[in-house]
Request: fold
Amino acid sequence: MGKWMLIGVCAALFLAAAALLLRAHRLHDRLDRLIADAIRGDFHPTQYDESRISRTEQKMAQFLSASSLSRAALDQDRARIQSLISDISHQTRTPIANILLYTSLLCEEPLTPEAHDLASQAAAQAEKLRFLVQSLVMASHLETGVVQVHPVYAPLRGLLDSLLASFHSAAQDKNIALTASETDSTAYFDPKWTAEAIGNLIDNAIKYTPAGGAVRLSVQEFSMFCAVTVADTGPGIPEAEQAKIFARFYRSPQVAALPGVGIGLYLTREILQAQGGYVKVCSVPGQGAKFSAYLPKEPYLRKLP
Reply:
């Protein structure tokens, strides 16, 4: 009798455990469906009672509703900022072009040395303003997603050759040796925007390297990335400033007198991040600087903002 009772108890416990396991499995499946629906954006509560799963559905619905409102407000703010910058760009394009034209014509006139110097300075400031407006528009487009990168598998050799050709004249004017190492590496990147990003690094390297120096491009492969490094023989960057130089409009006091608005490195970072890459700097004052643009070797699934 005791034996059968024990068997009955064990059977009951087994059935209870099986029921709990089945219930947990069903609960897991339902939660999995809830999360999948939320990711797709078509989540709606399906159960209206006092059960825990119903309360979970209601809380998730409230959370998603609040998130949707916040997202909509953020999108509206971005749209307003984008519209404002586009308006500024449109309204200033013609006046800036006219200022550049008039100062150019003025510089051709028989002026006194002092007047000629003032006209040249006015032209330089107008060109700086034109570049700043263009950079702001580009940054705004990147931040708001108006500009979309379209990465493809491409050899880095072609990218380096194109960059060498683009900056050959600027390097030659300063008697700077601009070279690139051989490479057969392939990465996943947008050729146009990546050339813009790495071009900013080369432009800075040439700008801050003294005449007679050198700027060298090289490629190093890692398991997930290819790094395109731009190394110069300039003054270098203090460690305390290395975390600041990628911020918008930041300029080191050491180079404040040189041309520039402090947005190139910021744009480089934004462009690389948009396609799953990143940028690093390694520098010791007095020993030049190395900026490395890391490009993914596999497709990158961009995260939602």
